[in-house]
Write a structure and sequence with these properties.
single chain; alpha+beta; Thiol Ester Dehydrase, Chain A; seven-stranded antiparallel β-sheet
Amino acid sequence: MSSEPPARAEAGWVPVAFGTPFLARSGPYFVPADPAARGLAMRVRAEHVNYVSMAHGGVLSTFADVALSYQLFLLEEGGLPITTVSMAVNYLVPARLDDWLEADVTIERVGGKLAHTSGRILCSGTTLLTMTGVYNILRRAR
C-alpha cells in the first residue's frame, strides 16, 4: 500500500469503492457528487507513473476499461454483469503526476449478448486518449 495521503478529489467529485482488491489498488476512483450525473475520474499518483514521470500506459488503459465498463454496469439496478471482450486505446498526450483525469463515455449499443462503448480520457479539457470497448453481457437471456 502507498504511504501517500489519500488522493484529493476535484470539487463536485466523491470517492467510490468498487469492492475488488485490483480496483482498490489501481485507483482511487471518483464519481460525481450529484447522483444523477454520470462519470468517472482519478488523480495520477506517484504509484501510477513510470520511469519518465508520466502515467504508465497500463494505468491509463485500466482507467479506460473501468470507465467504459462502469457506465454499462450502471444501466441496470444492482449492476449489469459484464466482462471485457476487447478494448482499444489510442494514447495521444501523456498524463503527469497529480493530473486530474476524467472519462467521457458513450454507450454505442447494448444487445442481448454484447455491448459496444467508446470514449476519451481528458485532463483540463485536453483529450489524452481515446478508447473503444466491447463487453460480454453475462445475464441470462429473458
